[in-house]
Batch of 3 targets.
Target 1
Amino acid sequence: MTAIPIVALDFPDAERAMTLVKTLDEKVRFYKVGSELFTSSGAEVVQWLRDSGCDVFLDLKFHDIPNTVAGAMRRVAEMGVRLATVHATGGVKMMQAAVEAAGASCGVLAVTVLTSLNDATLGEAWGRERVDVENEVLRLAELARTAGCHGIVCSGQEAKAVSSRHGKALKLLVPGIRLPGDAADDQARIVTPEAAVAAGATYLVLGRAVTAAKDPRAAMEAVNRALKS
């Protein structure tokens, strides 16, 4: 089974997001709603996607005390969201609360290390001189598995190591996907769709590789061909 592509609707308003969904039409039926779009358009855009027959990945990266995260995740599940994120650094109890509140219909993914960070910038953020991103991802993946999470979010560069250690026990969602020749932009750890699948990715999040393309449908077709091959 190949990885499932998810297109990121990283837009400031619902109108632009809806235009892209209508443009891509049958090319993709799974979309990510992140902080920017959700802040501007709220649950209405999630409902519109669900009414349009699309699955929704709500990427709000909850990180709070367990009770607060559980309350938010219950509302997320009520919206019919298929996947949602929390930060693994919130700890096992927080993730467990999220998983319990989400129920069986909404998979909780634990964000390990953002793909915009590398060894140096992660060490700076955490106040440590020497940090190895892959080791930190593996450590946080272990916590996510203990908490019963559906899976984790990591870059394609760590996916193989996580897959080797956890097999099918953790689903892997890989952002930072770029087609050959695409700019890295603000991402530090990027991979192609083929490389992500080879590393064990279950879900691929496609942002500017599709949304910023001159022809988004053609770009999505290129991704689908790469996944089929």
Target 2
Amino acid sequence: MAAVDVLNRTGEKVSEVDLSDDIFSIPVKKSVLHDVVRMQLASRRSGTATVKDRSDVAGSTRKLYRQKGTGNARSGGIKSPLRRGGGVIFGPMQRSYDHKVNKKVKSLALKMALSSKFENHELFVINSFELDQIKTKDLISVTRNLGLKKVLIITNEDDRNLFLSAQNIPDLKVLKTEGLNVYDLLKYDNLLLVESSIQEIEGRLA
């Protein structure tokens, strides 16, 4: 098992914690990460853009004028796409962008994302934040003491002070362990784990 320093809110080492090699030290395959991130982003698309074609437009189907003898081009009906207020040709229709990824692949991609953070020395552990109040300045002070920018914080506790203090800080996001995902792990440069969350992460991915 690999050992990682556990820091306090001032950036001082207070202990060490062991990380499971089966989760934090596995080979990383970019193709697997790509598939899962693509799945996550696709699932966010609503796919509700739609237009009315000529069968959806309200109007009569009566022929506007006779076929021959008027000198005009042939015209079928008022709902023709060539006329104002008619149907739209080849417009977007409601659809789903979702595509499935195997559960095992999702789990593997999450392990790979965590392993990449550990391998690149972008994974840090803090014993606790101990924020006495909702104050953005206090949380910024902690991240500065740790020397971290663009950081994803993972906790297993319903720490209201932590979540609300992080709301107005750009390039900082707080997630509970059940919300841990590949996209956010790769989006943020650094990963900061609250020490108590490690056991829960390993239990989820074991």
Target 3
Amino acid sequence: MIVLGVDPGLTRCGVGVVDASPGQQPRLVHVAVIRTPADDPLERRLLAIDTALSDVVDGFTPDAIAVERVFSQHNLRSVMGTAQVAGLVLLAAARRGIPVGMHTPTEVKAAVTGSGRADKAQVTTMVTKLLRLDTRPHPADAADALALALCHGWQAPMRARLAAAL
């Protein structure tokens, strides 16, 4: 099961593709950070992210896409940019008929570290270990995207078993 995880952000948008096939060691397929200049007009930044995101989706044809659920932050401007990028992810998935899972940061942290209160360094350390990487994904947006993909990949079989039982 190929899962694309997206940590949405207007300045830095983490994208991570993981092979999370059931019964297999999870494997890194691709990781990157899409960056846009803060002084570019919003519409140009969104277009650049959409174009780069489309390249990743079309290039790796994921079975599912996991995106961080936007939550309320103190900085309204920051949360608006995050929500706009999350919308691009949802649109890219819908255009291609790819199922989407939205996960809270607490849910993702708990899935990869065992604690919903883990900090970014702990998440990065666990992602590095789980995927048996030689180097730590950097910046944190890249590690967060991989953590999202791992979380979704592990939860998808459980959701399928639940649905079959109902």
